[in-house]
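Section 5.1 Outputs to date
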Amino acid sequence: MGLYTVTRPCMVGDLHYAQVPAAPIIADDAVAADLVASGVLIPVDSGEKPPAAKSAPHRRRATGKEA
C-alpha cells in the first residue's frame, strides 16, 4: 500500500476517480504499478507527509455593531 497523487480521472482497482482529488490516495502498489507507468498516478515520497488541503481563513461575521 502506498500514497499516490492522481493526475487525471481514472479507475484505481474498484474505485472510480471522476475528478482529481485534492489529497493523495492510498492504493495497493500492485494495482497502481500500471497507472504509475502511464503517468496517471505519481507516488508520494514516503519521507514526507502528504500536503494538507488548504482552506480559506475564517472571517468574523459582521454584526453591525462597532466596538
